[in-house]
Amino acid sequence: MPDRANTSSTPPDTYTAVFDVVRRIPCGRVCTYGEIARLIGRPRAARVVGYAMHRCPPGLPWHRVINAQGRISLPADSTAGLAQRRRLEEEGVALIGGRVDLDRFGWPDSD
């Protein structure tokens, strides 16, 4: 099975752009895959953002990236999913019923 994260249709600068946006997400806020795609000028490329996140460099605040429903995309009982939830809660992001209120914690602000 081919590694979809390394397809020739995804230029390396796209991943760099994703990582640059993720670095800008403030502590205590979250951003969706789709919003990151929009911010890098590829509004229909949320899946590409997900591929990039599989390759994120050390120190990147990966835990601040969630899906459009306000949920953590990783399995809830996985080590990474539990770590993401813990990190978000440590930053003051509330998860109620497994969801983040994007109106309250979403970044960038939608005004």
Task: Describe the fold and architecture.
This protein is mainly alpha-helical. The protein has a single domain (4-105), classed as Arc Repressor Mutant, subunit A. 40% of the residues lie in helices and 7% in strands. The protein has five helices and four strands; from the N terminus they run αβααβαββα. Helix 1 (12-24) packs across helix 3 and helix 2 crosses helix 3 (46-53). The longest helix has 13 residues, at 12-24. It is globular and about 35 Å long. Mean pLDDT is 92; it is low at 1-7.
Mean pLDDT score: 92
Low-confidence stretches: 1-7
Instruction: Assign the structural class, choosing from mainly alpha, mainly beta, alpha/beta, alpha+beta, or little secondary structure.
Output: mainly alpha
Radius of gyration: 14 Å
Query: What is the CATH domain class?
Result: Mainly Alpha
Could you please say which CATH topology applies here? Arc Repressor Mutant, subunit A
Q: Give helix % range.
A: 25-40%
Number of helices: 5
Count of all domains: 1
Described by its quaternary structure, the protein is single chain
Global outline:
globular
Number of strands: 4
Q: What is the CA–CA distance across the termini?
A: 43 Å
* Strand order of the biggest β-sheet: 1-2
Strand content: 5-15%
